[in-house]
Amino acid sequence: MPATVIVGAQWGDEGKGKIVDLLAQHSDLVCRYQGGPNAGHTIVAEGEKYKFHHMPSGILHAKECILGAGCVIDPEVFVRELDELEARGISTGCVHVSGEAHLIMPWHVAIDQGSERRLGELQIGTTKRGIGPAYADKAARLGIRVQDLLEPKILRQKIEVALAEKNVWLERVYGVEPLELEELAARYESFAQRLRPYVADTSLLVDRALRDGRFVLLEGAQGTLLDLDHGTYPFVTSSSPIAAGAAVSFGIGPQRIDEVVGVSKAYVTRVGEGPFPSEITGPAQDRVRELGGEFGTVTGRERRCGWLDLVALRFAVRVNGITSLALTKVDVLSDFDEIPVCVRYRLPDGEETEDFPAHQSDFHHCEPVFEMLPGWLEELAGPALPPAAADYVAFVAGSLDVPVTLVGTGASRDAVLALQP
Ligand code: GDP
Ligand code: IMO
Ligand code: MG
After folding, report:
1. Burial of 54 (0-12, 13-18, 19+ CB in 10 A)
2. Taking CB atoms and a 6 Å cutoff, what residues make up the pocket around ligand 2?
3. What is the 13 CA–ligand 3 centroid distance (Å)?
4. Are 327 and 397 spatial neighbours (Cβ–Cβ below 8 Å)?
5. Does residue 41 carry a catalytic annotation?
6. SS3 207
7. Which of 55, 77, 222, 409 is most buried, taking the most CB atoms under 10 A from its CB?
């Protein structure tokens, strides 16, 4: 399909990077539509491991890789990623960044860290990469944008104006050292020189590609339940990972999106704080974490692990308009003789529901209702799934009324089964 969105259907880390890398082979443009260096996408290809924060996951196929207006860019992280790619022999000449994207500045990182410290037990558990403060300044119309890098005088002036206020916050509210104007202005001018060639009108690029009938993948970072509007607020990120975010970020009409591929693990993980009904209790959680290698790509934190939650996944199908699912990490469940799947929530008043609760207190206090599915207790090595694994996948598809078209059977690029062309 010419324009396909790839969206995380859970709380992030679903394996989007691997699925985008796979589909990028058949695409012309790979476009990231939101988020920043809070994302960590791992791709294992030909025995090599790559971890991307900013870069769209199509970069290994030398596709046009585009970051849209909805992204926030930390120039230091971005330049480091460009350097690392070039050092590994991967050309970055195909990378384009929207001039409308906002910059994450050092005060955003310092405020993110200070704010989490102040919140103490109430903290969100952010990646501390300055994401929330950068999007907050964007909404307050105080942000510095990528296109400001094109004009040294404007860039310096904007840094100066911002610092006058941010330093007061840093010193008086968060009790940390203020930032120094001259040092910062010089450092950002050097980033600017490096980034200028990559700045582009990304809406025009995507529009032209679609008019020419080229294939465009629109890649979300994070996941549906971390969406600022529709996720588990306030334990969310500050952007719109849901599929509609792709149209907003690239300035294309929503009717131009042809297909939405949801990526979900065969179980669930979550990094950071917040309610998590199907979180596994007891030693099975550690077993899933070890078998799945569930440690954060960005912060190295242990990921919390839960059994597959069909209530949350049904919600993701709804708010994204998911047309097919990629179910990753099915191999991780090969070790369990019985696999619980959360099919309903029991609400505090005793009522059971298949629909995601609209009210936060219902979600915070609901209990998962599990159905036990038989395990398969064998490796997923062959060209077909063992019958019990096929039944597990069919149960998911049937419960959601969405086809599962891809099944992840291992971390590497080729460890995937296509169930339909
Ligand atoms: P993303 O943020 O959604 O791109 O996901 P991450 O890269 O943060 O986390 C997914 C992890 O699972 C990565 O280490 C991948 O290499 C790995 N992975 C992806 N798909 C599979 C799969 O089907 N099986 C296994 N065992 N690992 C997978
Ligand atoms: P990828 O793209 C998993 C989580 C953080 C925290 C919350 C807010 O690899 O799927 P933020 O730094 O964005 O303000 O943190 O969101 N979070 C992620 N969890 N995968 C991610 O990205 C995430 N990006 C942010 O742990 O709970
Ligand atoms: Mg990740």
Report:
1. buried
2. 8, 11-13, 38-41, 124-127, 129, 131-132, 221-223, 226, 235, 237-238, 271-272, 297
3. 4
4. no
5. yes
6. helix
7. 222
Structure tokens at 365: 């206090």
Between the CA of 404 and the centroid of ligand 3 the distance, in Å, is 21
Q: How far apart are CA 8 and CA 231, in angstroms?
A: 12
13 is catalytic: yes
Peptide bond into 75 cis (omega under 30): no
Here the tokens at position 354 are 């298949």
Closest of 60, 63, 55, 56 to residue 27, by C-alpha: 63
Query: Which pTM does this prediction carry?
Result: 0.97
What whole-number distance in Å separates Cα of residue 149 and Cα of residue 154?
A: 8
Choose one of 18, 50, 325, 392 to mutate for the ligand 1 pocket test, by most ligand atoms within 8 angstroms of C-beta: 18
Burial of 89 (0-12, 13-18, 19+ CB in 10 A): exposed
Q: How far is the CA of 42 from the centre of ligand 3 (A)?
A: 7
Residue 175 burial by Cβ neighbours in a 10 Å radius (0-12, 13-18, 19+): exposed
Distances (CA, A) of 410 to 308, 336, 357: 18, 16, 33
CA distance 246 to 240: 8
Q: Which two tokens stand for residue 150?
A: 């094109």
Tell me how far the alpha carbon of residue 18 lies from the centroid of ligand 1, in angstroms.
7
Q: Which amino acid is at 47?
A: G
Ligand nearest to the CA of 32: 2
pLDDT in tens, the chain (421 residues): 699 999 999 999 999 999 999 999 999 999 999 999 999 999 999 899 999 999 999 999 999 999 999 999 999 999 999 999 999 999 999 999 999 999 999 999 999 999 999 999 999 999 999 999 999 999 999 999 999 999 999 999 999 999 999 999 999 999 999 999 999 999 999 999 999 999 999 999 999 999 999 999 999 999 999 999 999 999 999 999 999 999 999 999 999 999 999 999 999 999 999 999 999 999 999 999 999 999 988 888 999 999 999 999 999 999 999 999 999 999 999 999 999 999 999 999 999 999 999 999 999 999 999 999 999 999 998 899 999 999 999 999 999 999 999 999 999 999 999 997 5
* Cα separation values, 70 from 57, 87, 121, 155, Å: 17, 28, 30, 20
- The ligand 1 atom at the shortest distance from the C-alpha of residue 328 is 23
What the block records as the tokens of 266 is: 């065969």
